[in-house]
Amino acid sequence: MGFLDTVTSAFNKGTASAKRTGRLAQLRLQANELLRQRRDLTAQLGASLYETVKEMPELRESREPLFASIEDVDQKRAKIDEEIAEIEAEIEAQRASSMMFKCPSCGADVSSTDMFCSTCGISIEEVKAAYAAPEPADALTCSVCGATLSEGDRFCMVCGAKQELIEEVEQAAEAVASEE
After folding, report:
1. Is the dihedral of CA 179, 155, 159, 101 positive or negative?
2. Could you tell me which residues come within 8 angstroms of residue 143 by beta carbon, excluding any fewer than 6 positions away?
3. Interval 17-45 mean pLDDT
């Protein structure tokens, strides 16, 4: 029985050691998390105290280098924020300038930076107005893309769909609806 007692004792010691090691790791993790929380809270406290104290010369006196460093960082951050805003405005301007429209007269692609349609010559204002104009209640619309059609159009000026095809699609949709 001596051998089994030795093995059991060694096993129990190993288990106890593993438990202690695991508990130690768990406690260190908790301690580090609490330390991180403390740093975050002291940073918040410092920020609120800075805002309160920065206009009080008697409290700034011995901490002037810290206040100067903070003000320097704030100025650098303000410049970076301005640059970010400028770049975002440039991106938005580029996005707006790269918009493409279909000419309502001839169906050609027209860039928002163009002054006229290069195919038929109508102005960009007319092209844009075609997109912004409200549709009359009884207007014919393309069932393929939804663009407004003029009376007698044989093709959709936006997507190029044949008017006959549009009529066939509408007739088929009406037939399906009447069967239900």
Report:
1. negative
2. 166, 169, 170, 173
3. 88
